UniProtKB/TrEMBL annotation:
A probable RNA chaperone. Forms a complex with KhpB which binds to cellular RNA and controls its expression. Plays a role in peptidoglycan (PG) homeostasis and cell length regulation. GO terms for molecular function: RNA binding. Its main location: cytoplasm. PANTHER family: RNA-BINDING PROTEIN KHPA (PTHR34654:SF1), UPF0109 PROTEIN SCO5592 (PTHR34654). It comes from the Bacteria. This is RNA-binding protein KhpA.
Length: 76
């Protein structure tokens, strides 16, 4: 899941080498912390949060197959 999220995020930003994803693995939840260049945060979030919402939906769908939930936090 982390690799897919990283691939999506890197394709959206101007500085793909600055995209870092930290995975915190819990019992029932996986938390992904996405860090990127401050100038690229808006591109990750998207208009009205639609881009980050779509990324969260993808992560939740993948986590549901494992009986878990996924959270995506954009950290600047």
């Amino acid at each position: 899941m982390k690799a897919i999220l990283e691939s999506i995020a890197k394709s959206l930003v101007d500085a793909p080498n600055e995209v870092k994803i930290t995975e915190v693995d819990g019992e029932k939840t996986i938390i992904f912390e996405l860090r990127c260049n401050a100038k690229d945060v808006g591109k990750i979030i998207g208009k009205s949060g639609k881009t980050v919402g779509a990324m969260r939906t993808i992560m939740n769908s993948m986590a549901a197959k494992q009986g878990r939930k996924a959270m995506l936090e954009v950290v600047d």
